[in-house]
Hints:
Number of strands: 8
Order of helices and strands: EHHEEEEEEHEHH
Transmembrane segments: 12-37, 43-63, 183-204
Number of domains: 1
Strand order of the largest sheet: 1-2-3-4
Number of helices: 5
Distance between the termini: 54 Å
Oligomer: single chain
Strand content: 15-25%
Helix content: 40-55%
Shape: globular
Keywords: Membrane, Transmembrane, Transmembrane helix
Radius of gyration: 19 Å
Amino acid sequence: MIKSNIHINWYLWFSLMLFLLIFGAYMFGIKTIIYIIDKGVSFFNILIFILCFSLELFLLIVLKGFKYLIIDKSKNQLKYYSILRPFGKTLYFNDYIGTYQTTETGSLGSYKVLYLVDKNNITRLKIMGIYYKNMDEIMKIITLPKIRKNLSPKEYFKLLFIGKINLSEIENKKNVESKITTYLKIFITITFIIFILGTLIRIFG
């Protein structure tokens, strides 16, 4: 049996992100709705609400990937805890046909990502190596066959944000990893700029 080895800095990061999610839901969600009801509907108010909702959704997607793992090889199972599964959920490797491995890029650089693939060839649980000091050990103990596919940028972003994609419907394409990395960096930059602008508008608007 192994447990995910998460650095304490990531627990602090998770607490901060959770605070921002709750604070943002109040400041940019509830207060914006109250403001719209009080002042009336306008294009500017709706635009701010949509931008704030998108940022909240982005934060939720980020926090959803933070999981505490317990893998018991003798029982052929994995149990994880997350913001959406605070009491844990147990998965059995017999219900999966393999794993799909890829890389993602963030502000701290590239890191490994592993998905469990069910019997319908759909990616399920996402394990992000950026959080774990023992990611190689986690990948090693999960001995399911590796499924290899080269995703297009569209498929990559669908997998990144939705977390589910049918691998049987994907045709292997020419490696586009460098393009995907570039697109992802552009997206992160735009998202950060929108967040700053939204915050400034709410403060000084």
